[in-house]
Predict the 3D structure of the following.
Amino acid sequence: MKKILKAAAVMAAFLTVTAAAFAQNPQGKQENSWREKMMAEKIGFLTSAMELTSDEAQAFWPVYNRLEEQKEQQMRASRNAYRALSAALKEGKSDDEIAEILAQYTSAQLASADLEATCISEYGKVLPAQKIAKLIVGEEKFRRMQFQRFQGQGQSPGQMRGGERGPRPADRPQQK
């Protein structure tokens, strides 16, 4: 019975995301398609990793989606602050100008940390602590899985044809 409820929760989450994706993007633009597929995969992965019941999933996903949107906005602000800092260095700005931009960057970083604490508090209103911990671990596992997947795409210098990776630099014989 538990497996059926779990499967139903995963399917409901997947269908909700898919329906929302098509409603927001009826033309099926390719750049959004990748993001939507990844988000649907993430929801399925996290639902399973957290072992959410259908009631928990119903309460959790709206909160998660709202907070993820805020995280995305905050990440954009941090990225913009970093770019401004990098540009100021390249342009040879004065110490006073760089100090002001550095303060903006620091503020953006602190706001990101505050938002993370807010997220955990908000999740605590709808989930027990153990499932919040599973969420944090699951998100990191999913991020690493995606990173490894993207590393496997395209030809990087250490990559061979067919996606096989060559020996790592430490494993390669030393040339004399």
Remarks:
- Confidence is low (pLDDT under 50) at residues 7-23, 155-172.
- Residues 54-90 form the longest helix (37 residues).
- Helices lie at 2-24, 30-50, 54-90, 95-124, 129-151.
- DSSP finds five helices and no strands in the chain.
